[in-house]
Amino acid sequence: MGLGPAVRFALYASADDRYVPTAVMALRSFQRWHPEFGYFILGTREAMHPESLALMQRYGIELIDVNDAHRFPVRGRFAYKDRERFYCLKGPELLAARGFSHSAQVDGDVFCPKPMDLAELGRLLDRTDGLAARPVGSLDRTLRHRYGDRNKEFDFSHRSVRRALGLGRLALWRHYEYGSGVLYFNNVAMVQRGFYEACIDVFTRCHGCFSGDQDLLAFTVATMRVPVQRIGHPFHFTFFEDSPWDDGVLRGQIDREDYHGVHVVHFVFAKPWLPIERPTPPKMHLVNLWRAFVRAELGSEATRYFAAIDPVDDPTPGKAVYQQRVTA
Q: What is the pLDDT of residues 100-139, one digit of tens each?
């Protein structure tokens, strides 16, 4: 059983030129199992190197030329200057125009280790009236982080947020920040809500003082009261390191080295192309899967894009058998 007949599904990533190789590999990790989906990168064509365009073309990933950088005049002490990261918020609108009813946005450090359970994905999309995502903390927590930036342009105090967005203290406790590394959208519903223009409006009211798309998403969702279908760890797995709650069943499976319950991995604190700090067996297992996948896809070209792609050795005593099975 797959997705319903009314569902046309696409995956996409936002990228500047430097981020294209990781974005392509993230999308390709899904595409190898599910070629029936659409695959896109949102970026600025004139800023792309021919090599980046060729890499996308190799895998049949279409570049959507957004060219909206002028709408995100970022400010503040910790604002990222690569404004392409905000393009992911326009994904539902752009893909709805191409006939895709639903989509998922993934970051470049996301990986699909096996075929997805399409019946389960279909049930998730059926329940999604706007956005499906995994909470990472309350919006009040987000506010504290931004207030600590001490931006002169917009300080994210309770008073300034209430005046700019109409969000009082109670609303900040009731609403959540969601992990934007993996987001599932009902494209049609988000277009009907005018989601992207609302993001621009919230961005403008807060004087562009956002550290990234995740913060802007959180405040826009709360301001617009977008319905959010909360998802668990299987469809956005971060090794339980970026979540206000655990999943005892999934953790038990992983402790037994059973990863069948993990649909989508997000390497938030363990980029698979970098040396791993504080390695654990689950991290090493999934990083090794990612590295083997990249070596198989890119061959001798892999080292042009990624420095660390050799298998990770397990320094933990008593894990030699486990490591042999992982890297075989």
A: 999 999 999 999 999 999 999 999 999 999 999 999 999 9
Contact 131, 228 (CB under 8 A): yes
Rg of the chain over Cα atoms, rounded to whole angstroms, equals 20
What is the architecture of the domain spanning 9-230? Alpha-Beta Complex (3.90)
In the chain, domain spans: 9-230, 282-327
Within the chain, where are the H helices?
A: 20-31, 50-58, 91-96, 118-126, 139-147, 158-165, 169-174, 187-192, 195-205, 213-224, 248-255, 281-298, 302-305, 320-327
d(CA 223, CA 219): 6
Token match 């800023």: residue? Answer: 47
Residues β-bridged to residue 176: 138
CA distance 201 to 36: 35
What is the distance between the alpha carbons of residues 209 and 316, in angstroms, rounded to a whole number? 43
Q: Side chain identity at 307, as an amino acid letter?
A: A
Confidence of residue 56 (pLDDT cuts 50, 70, 90): very high
> Is the entire prediction scored with pTM above 0.90?
yes
Dihedral sign (CA 187, 193, 197, 200): negative
- Beta sheet of 228-230, edge-to-edge order: 62-65, 38-43, 9-14, 102-106, 182-186, 131-133, 228-230
In DSSP terms, which residues pair with 106 in a beta bridge? 182
Which among 23, 63, 62 has a CA at the least distance from the CA of 44?
A: 63
Q: Rounded CA gap, 215 and 311, in Å?
A: 35
| Residue among 18, 25, 19, 181 at smallest CA distance from 88 | 181
Burial class of 115 by CB neighbour count within 10 A (0 to 12, 13 to 18, 19+): exposed
Strand-pair category, 176-178 with 135-138: antiparallel
Q: What whole-number distance in Å separates Cα of residue 320 and Cα of residue 325? A: 9
